[in-house]
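Reposting from the mailing list since nobody answered there.

I have sequence plus structure tokens for a pair of proteins and want to know whether others read the tokens the same way I do. The first protein:
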Amino acid sequence: TKNYLLGVGRADCTGPVAEIPLMGYANPKQVGGGLFTRLYSRAFIVADFDDTKRIVFVSADIGMVSQKLRLEVLKKLKSKYGKLYRQDNVILSGTHTHSGPGGYFQYTLFWITSKGLIKPSLNAIVNGIVKSIDIAHQNMKRGRLFINRGIVENSQINRSPFSYLENPASERSRYSSNTDKEMVMLKMVDNNGQEMGLISWFAVHPVSMNNTNHLVNSDNVGYASYLFEQEKNKGMLPGEGSFVAAFASSNLGDVSPNTKGPFCVNTGESCDNPQSTCPVGGATMCMAMGPGNDMFDSTRIIGQNIYLKARELYEKASQEITGPLSSAHQWVNMSDVSVELNATHMVKTCKPALGHSFAAGTIDGVGAFNFTQGSVEGDPFWDEIRDQLLGKPSNETIACHKPKAILFSTGEMTRPRPWHPDIVDIQIAAIGSLAIVAVPGEFTTMSGRRLREAVKREFHSHGTPGMDVVIAGLCNVYTHYITTYEEYQAQRYEAASTIYGPHTLSAYIQLYRGLARAIATNTVQDLPRGPEPPLFNIGNLTLVPSLTADRVPANKTFGDVLQEVRQLYRAREVAEVTFVGANPRNSAENATEHNFLTVERYANTSDSWHVVQNDASWDTRFYWTKGLLGQSNVTIEWHIPHGTEPGVYRIRYFGHYKKNTHSVSIPFEGASSTFEITAL
């Protein structure tokens, strides 16, 4: 068979791990304070036999891909590769972890919770994505693709089951569950049988880590990637090795990994009711619980479930994918799409708006949209934002969004920049019989089913039966949620966050059918490009404190130990050491590949130290605590895993300090005393 040219790449995209609001729960109090696991961009390039067509799929450990992020990446790819990598053949997808740094958005709404536009955060992600594509590009090899699919159990619940029940009974009866339990996997092997990597698509929210967490990490799907890559890159540290395993998002809109369901934090009783509310304390007390005894444990359990199913599907994958490559893309003004429901009935989408339930949040994370707090007053930029928030929606917008009670009429808010996108990417990439439908947000379970079915039917009716249609979530631009028309009527969080109104899903189905038709009939070149999205040139507009000089306590220097390790540990215990620290943001601005810590084992034979863990390891945690007057501490924990080789170990810390606000960062390091690990 004529096979493909394949390339895989992985690059760090972690960015600053301190003082930056984490993106996902919209909770301004949830700012970074350290690092649990690193964030990576994982890139996959498929080219056809004679290298006339290419498709790039990137899954990055971030909350979502923003329009600003995508446009900046495409700009860099264009200057590097000319017309090779373009808006039609590059798909950028976010895993939807809620524990990555925010601040990489150009639309005003997202500035509120992530404190504006944060250049170091944006740059880390842009550079990481581009670097992962570079690595894949430089390592193209002839190879083969295999697809497999299977059911993942005990890893999801529907977090808006009462909305799901609004869908027609005849439709619901076709499905055994109110979540999509199927994982679809694409396996890559080169012609010499060398394993290259995989992409798995599975619908689940990476919110096993809840909104009390302050450590940057990639959550449950990131842990699945970690386990798969650790298994295949034997003897390598996390983040190293050539095998790349991406666990990408899908139609996860109403899907939670917190499988015990919602309980009242204060009383312990269930709050699985249509309003997700508790008798005492209301909705703010209702939180879903994961299967573990804490959020780290829940992340581990869900991540491991996903990994184990993926490994089984990977090993058994035998259905080969062959056939041509094709990609189709359009920009669409989603605030003004006419949808033909049937021969006699036309409806329209609306200017973007968010409903009241948006502010309430979900059982995975209670809302925190309280703008009346004193902290933002007195800043003319934020004063203007507050005035905009109090603006009334027009009658037209109110009527269009019914029955949504509008909280923020974002489509009518344009200062200092538009609050929400109008111009949205729609995109499909076909690799042989696999169609990857790249969607700009979070489709609910039933919305995703309807979209996949419509695309599959469209391919079929134009002579391409039996396509495997997979939804890739959180691609290209973020437009919140997409519920079905029926779910929209219930106006829970997901529906309140369906920003283009009740017919959003119908509009997307019509548009994606158009792309599928163009691919199936080989008329992609005739598709109109659509209106180009704006790229706003925004300076550093941010409430994040500026970096100031780092200071040390009297008679101490950076990297000195303040609280020492014990001399002896056993497996399953926690070795912990605290250092005189400096702001980790200094390191992020200094180096892309900075490692904050190592765990090292002493080798007698060579009288040298060997790194056994780094800051990307699942077993290490890096905490930064800000003190007064520029002082700060760093605490490093090593949760010593079962099976750790007995011997002599030490923990090292690597940081950078600034002498004054405008000086360069100066590197320093510290080390714990040596300690021994004994066999049980």
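The second protein, same order (residues first, tokens after):
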Amino acid sequence: MGRAVTVATCALNQWALDFEGNLERIFRSIAIAKSKGARYRLGPELEICGYGCADHYYESDTLLHSFQVLEKLLESPATEDIICDVGMPVLHRNVRYNCRVIFLNKKILLIRPKISLANAGNYRELRWFTPWSKARHVEEYFLPRIIQEVTGQETVPFGDAVLATKDTCLGAEICEELWAPNSPHIEMGLDGVEIFTNSSGSHHVLRKAHARVDLVNSATAKNGGIYILANQKGCDGDRLYYDGCAMISMNGETVAQGSQFSLDDVEVLVATLDLEDVRSYRAEISSRNLAASKVNPYPRVKVNFALSCPDDVAVPTCMPIQWRHHSPEEEISLGPACWLWDYLRRSQQAGFLLPLSGGIDSSATACIVYSMCHQVCLAVKNGNADVLADARRIVNDETYIPEDPREFCKRVFTTCYMASENSSQDTCNRAKLLAEQIGSYHINLNIDAAVKAVVGIFSVVTGRTPRFSVYGGSSRESLALQNVQARIRMVLAYLFAQLTLWARGMPGGLLVLGSANVDESLRGYLTKYDCSSADINPIGGISKTDLKNFIQYCIENFQLTALRSIMSAPPTAELEPLVDGQVAQTDEADMGMTYAELSIYGKLRKIAKAGPYSMFCKLINIWKEICTPREVASKVKHFFRMYSVNRHKMTTLTPSYHAENYSPDDNRFDLRPFLYNTSWSWQFMCIDKQVNAL
């Protein structure tokens, strides 16, 4: 009898509303799966329209075009003799569902709606979809006429059911259902389902991949079975980077692992596995078998098709492998680099411009662009025709082949050091040396004339001339003068981004990169509408601590020796006058807190859901060896004052790569007021009472 089943899963770089491109990538994945002998192919969540359509899901066009793509898939000979499992939105009885459409040989077998919707953090699925709440219930779905004409079916099963083929039984989960405490695979496994599938739209967060892998492996460790996970990859038009990691697991062990970060638009994993291994694994788990004897059965859709061949005794099967996880530094090097590449090629721009200050943040951003150039050259070397075509279009040269990352960097990356009278020669030299080592086209300019012109207008109108604090001015005057410098840098960054290539006789414009880290954004330690205001920011979701570790990684792996002096220098905005030619202003002194403290505040505020009082209560224990309760109270109060005073800046925060779960991104992740009572009188009173009691 047939026992060796060959199944395929994939990671696809789909793009919201790119129906033509999405269809081409789906077809390509099916062709690869078939060429490797697969009889079942699983794709990512909502792969037909792209996961990130957001409020476009409300539009009937999105539903219509999804069915038009499904029609193309159904009628194509490319989808014959393989069960295809694709994702799309479906309207059933005037209710919109996030669905899997499973078909074989021009017949739809089942439409399976999502049961548990993702609705936390970056996800808002309940805004657009309704969860299917009728467990083990199937209804008739009336197909649109364009589909009826292809399939010859008027209605198909719609609901919570499983597929029974000639040789096994398959059950579907969709993304969030794997993370739910009552995952469907538990009951399905007890009811005899041997192959579980999961189509995901799961995004990258630093140090998250192991959690997904552990969940998949644990899904079959207790209950036995084969688990197949597909995921989206790339930037599909938003702040998130979907990080692939397609995988296949059996009986608690990984047997196939896809890449987490790559520039391949289509990646297909195929595994051949022995169903008898599942059956023998389950046979000795008596607790599982007792529970299985009492389970409420799932409706089964019978499929006259087998995933195995009758004579398969000699067919080799896949063995368990050890999953390789990236270090956080590798994740920073690869994830934002792939996100930048997707953004660059899909925005039809000619490269990036970065104001390079010679500090850690802008240098880390430059290193991520350099890493992107490395990835492009490596992909071309490995024969990726899509990347080569994109690179040629970006540099406007149909014969170009990117081979050297530094040379490619010169073509697509412009760095600009914007000096003022408050800038030190040290930072100028550091920026220049780093630009030389990564190969960027580097510009040195001075902003003093523009600053004096703007301040001069104010002086003419008011008759008053503001001064820095060191020259006898007030803190208001000093802050205003610092902000003028910062904002002029933003204006010049956009001017040079639009016209630098024009001045060099080259076509196209440049995307402006921001370089404010997640901690500075949380504290509000940035000027509104300064160089933090850009088109995109690859480090806006990364902490200062992680960026320092990433810089060290770049020194060791990219041999960028210029970073050593950048690492050792204290972070500074260089907006106040120098003292004896040396920098007197430092970031941590300005902020009144260290970057390490900021990371702790951020995690407690967002991840631990701590307000001022709860944060104080947690920190008096965490910091009991280094701070008195009164000192902790002072620190917590200062953080919340500064956070609330500056929260309005988050409303205009540059779209940033989402990498940390304590991001203060106001767009969709961290929804808070931006006009606070910054005295926090009641909360601080509770802290003071506790301090006095202690």
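Reply #1 (J.P.):
I read it the same way you do. The chain has three domains: 4-302, 328-446+493-591, 592-693.
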